[in-house]
Design brief:
- With about 425 residues, the chain is an all-alpha fold.
- It folds into two domains: about 325 residues, Amino acid/polyamine transporter I; about 60 residues, no CATH class.
- About 75% of the residues lie in helices and about 0% in strands.
- It has 17 helices and no strands.
- The chain starts with a helix and ends with a helix.
- It is found in: Cell membrane.
């Protein structure tokens, strides 16, 4: 492993993580948090940086596919979990990248339809996905540096020109609000999906690399990508907090980001922002479609036909769902996230702890417990009346995180038994 390979892999990993949600969520979160921006940043980075990077560390240990994350529960459960993850990924965050690109990068410059944007956008995604062996190099060498430069320009200008005066926070529970908003980045799901993309890309580039060499490369790349995400998220949240008195309180996520860009970059903001949004969203869509296609190919005996059909289907689905506005896609995603995210977090953690503490029995105990105690939050987001008074004795239940303590207890009891 040389420094060039590490740099390219780190950049590629950062870029595959950093997409639509990562760009539009932090500024509004900071805007609402005001003087509590640091608490929100802590919560957001717990779910959108720490957990995803632990997911990459788990991939470094497993060096397999998403199926390996949950197979200790049971092969059947793992297969169902994989299909759920990939279905959610290509149905929600992937189309959302096209929707964000249209609203923020295309619509301000051209009077064109969202359908035309989605068609061109996912045609390019399909081209990248088909050229599978070049994905890591193109994303790592060309696209990520552009994303980072523009982000740093926006954040550095805001921090260098504004007074550090904050309004009073609108959020009652800034820490837990930050954690839950971090769900919307899909970064924990991204970790288990794009981590597999990185593994396969490394194997394609160097078939002779040893297990330890690949493990070292993935772990170091995960650290640098995580550090990049941490700095960018903190910068965007702080920037949003500094603008809390500048814009109307009911401003949307995309309008706020556009406004901040105009205030910091002036007349060139539209062009810079269009480029930033397009690059950030595009790399994530490529990662999702490629990861999903890799999984289906593996299920069909490494069939390239299955890979191409899946990539085409993922892009067509992206075109259709990409017609909805960003706010609608985020709202629709919430129930799915409240159910699948706790399970994903638990599987990541179980695959990181020493194996002597994560036997198949422990996996089953903890995952089943997590599913059971996640159901009230899931039903609540669907509008069903949930008898919370039965669970109010649980710490964190009022923050929609009531599954955490039961999962910890299940982990301890499972190990004791």
């Amino acid at each position: 492993m040389n420094k060039k390979t590490l740099t390219i892999t780190s950049f590629a990993l950062f870029s595959l993580f950093f997409g639509a949600g990562n760009l539009i969520l932090p500024p509004l979160l900071g805007f609402k948090s005001g003087d509590s921006w640091w608490l929100v940043t802590l919560g957001f980075c717990l779910s959108a940086v720490l957990i995803p990077i632990l997911g990459i560390l788990a991939h470094a240990r497993l060096q397999g596919t998403l199926f390996d994350f949950a197979k200790k529960v049971s092969p059947t459960f793992s297969l169902v979990y994989c299909y759920l993850i990939y279905a959610i990924a290509i149905a929600l965050p992937s189309p959302r990248t096209a929707s964000v690109t249209h609203e923020m990068a295309i619509q301000p410059l051209f009077d064109s339809s969202s359908l035309l944007t989605s068609l061109i956008y996912f045609a390019l995604v399909f081209v990248f996905a088909i050229n599978r062996s070049k994905v890591l190099d193109i994303v790592g060498k060309l696209l990520t540096p552009g994303i980072l430069i523009i982000l740093l320009l926006i954040v550095a200008t805001a921090l260098g020109t504004l007074d550090f005066d904050f309004s009073t926070s609108e959020l009652k529970h800034p820490l837990s609000d930050g954690i839950l908003e971090g769900y919307q980045t899909f970064d924990a799901i991204g970790a288990v999906v794009v981590g597999a993309v990185i593994i396969i890309s490394i194997n394609i580039k160097d078939k002779t690399a040893s297990y330890e060499t690949k493990k070292d490369l993935i772990r170091k790349a995960g650290f640098w990508a995580g550090l990049g995400l941490l700095l960018v998220y903190a910068g965007l949240i702080l920037t949003g907090a500094l603008f809390s008195d500048v814009f109307a309180s009911d401003i949307t996520r995309t309008t706020l980001l556009s406004g901040i860009s105009t205030e910091t970059l002036g007349s060139t903001a539209t062009l810079f922002l269009s480029l930033l949004v397009s690059l950030a969203c595009f790399t994530t869509a490529v990662g999702i479609v490629t990861g999903t296609s890799d999984f289906v190919r593996a299920r069909f005996n490494d069939s390239n036909v299955a890979y191409r059909i899946t990539a085409l289907f993922g892009c067509l689905l992206g075109v259709l769902i990409g017609q909805f506005n960003v706010g609608y896609i985020i709202a629709v995603a919430l129930p799915a996230l409240m159910f699948i995210y706790p399970i994903t977090i638990i599987l990541i953690l179980l695959n990181v702890v020493p194996e002597k503490w994560a036997s198949p029995a422990v996996f089953r105990w903890v995952v089943i417990t997590t599913i059971v105690f996640s159901i009230p939050d899931f039903l609540g987001t669907l509008g069903f009346l949930v008898p919370y008074h039965y669970l109010e004795w649980l710490p964190l239940a009022q923050f929609q995180l009531g599954w955490i303590l039961p999962a910890v207890v299940a982990f301890m009891v499972g190990n004791i038994k």
